[in-house]
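Hey, I'm writing a tutorial for new members on how sequence and structure tokens pair up, and I'd like a real worked example in the thread rather than a made-up one. If someone can provide the structure for the chain below, I'll link this post from the tutorial.
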Amino acid sequence: MIIPSLDIFNKKIVRLFQGNYKKKKIYKKDVFKELEKCRLAGVKYVHLVDLEGAKNPKNKQVEFLKSILNKVKINIQVGGGIRSEKDIEDYFSYGAKRIVLGSSVIEDEKNVKNWLLKYGSELIVLALDIKISDKKEVFINGWTKKTDFVLEDLLKKYEDFGLKHVLCTDISKDGTLKGSNINLYKELCLSFKHLCFQSSGGVSSLIDILNLKKNGISEIIIGKSFLEEKFSILEAIKCWRKG
């Protein structure tokens, strides 16, 4: 399915370019109006990212996200700075339908495995952000810190603990509107057929949607294309259904 994405920084909708916080574009769009637009279009899920929390968990925009989750009538998966079971419980209590874990996947493996077992595969999404050289290197802390892990190794670590949903972002594509890394997702879907991958980064046209679905992607995260009206949410949903 199509999952519109809203990245929030200082209570505003923004987009980064290739994960660079210094290349931040602020959109003069109201968060609540954008979410209502998604609801009216028939969107099943929205991806909400706390960019301040992703960079530094101490700066989470908890109260603002809480107000969003309490008011909107649409399913939201939320991520950014979620590091503890209390964070997870809090966001669920506010109304989140899925929790997206990023940095914790690297820094708190034991607890992430326990959370997958406790909450179940439908409620926990692992977000793995990568830069590709000769291998798929994983970055954390809002894409600011390189780790020693490669994507495939992490997927194998969590397979036996109920992992199902994986949000994989090719950082080099994020915010560029230069097309998705189709080969990356094709390879992942073939290698890990039991996982449901959410593609993220670079979607610029309806052709990207068709190609991603054709190559096995379960869900497509789309942000900048919607914000800059390259195509509408309704057009994207219709394209997905026909594809």
